[in-house]
């Protein structure tokens, strides 16, 4: 608890909220080119557009999902093959800017000045971006597995036989999704800082980010459902809602990184005193 309190204090005292805004801006610029890139991959995978949108829906709060869905469909209507190929380059570069922003923030969190040449740092961040861009499309197979299980249940016997399983499925689905997110964030926090880290110093931040991000997405979705942003921002409401959600997501990522950095420094100090 003390570690989280210290990390939260650093988030405000060292103005990491500014870094969260910068990261959210880069994510905002990259989200639609990235979605177009993923959609271009659907031609080679047993996944349709509905599966992609269903994968996004649980995490995108309120009108954010509707905004993404409408814009993706509108873009696809007038998109040519050349635009889809260019989307990969745009998404990759813009997403790498978000990764570089987070990498600089984590370097400051660990109070470590990078000694690597600029080109090696850039290659590292581009490599991390490429890994994440591969991992996210792979995760789209989760809805396919779910549909396969439901298909099996529907044909394996009487529905009453599987009633308990069907009742527990939403809980199991949440646990499975949370486990996937946790492992993703463990990998994220282990590879992005340019230093060797023990797993015990990574788990606290990954666990915090997994639970907090899901809660904030759900809570923000409830708020958006009760507050009419359209009356305030008009046609920009969808963009504003998405931008706020990305900012909150970036803030949670940074706080999780600060928790890990604080845990690392505490462990380092305890070893020094032994």
From TrEMBL:
Keywords: Cell membrane, Membrane, Transmembrane, Transmembrane helix. Its main location: membrane. The keyword Membrane applies. The chain crosses the membrane at residues 24-45, 82-102, 122-142, 162-189, 201-220, 232-259. It is found in: Cell membrane. It comes from the Bacteria. PANTHER family: INNER MEMBRANE PROTEIN YHJD (PTHR30213), UPF0761 MEMBRANE PROTEIN YIHY (PTHR30213:SF0). This is Uncharacterized protein.
